Amino acid sequence: MERGEARLQPVGEAEAGKIPAARFRDEADHRAEAEAGLERARELLRDALLAQPGDRRTILAATEAWRRLDDADGARATLDPLLAEHPQHVDLWRARLAFEEFAGDAARAVIARWRAAMPDSVPALQAQITLHDVAG
Length: 136
Description:
- The protein contains seven helices and no strands.
- By secondary structure, the protein is an all-alpha fold.
- Helix 2 packs antiparallel against helix 3 (about 55-70), helix 4 packs antiparallel against helix 5 and helix 6 (about 105-115) runs antiparallel to helix 7.
- The chain is globular and about 50 Å long.
- The N and C termini lie far apart (about 60 Å).
């Protein structure tokens, strides 16, 4: 019997509407373990990002970790200083925008900073045009 089947067997054998408490404990333990691992990954990715702020894969992985942990404040606290030092990295700007409400005032402020830092940037201009189109 495969591991997954072994875990589900007690559920199948339980009376209708009654799920063994052990299953909930296992799932809660699994979620807690996964979250702890994700928190550790976030810290390692943050350190990697500080060392190599232009590495696209690291930026994407860190962004995903911040999203999964619902840590927009942590993302902003890491990305804003990086952008001040490395404004040439388009992927950092895109990651920073991901943590603001679409077309909101904070997103507009990020795009204004991006345009000021990189006035000839096509991606920054595209972001500004997108917001303009949304505004009507």
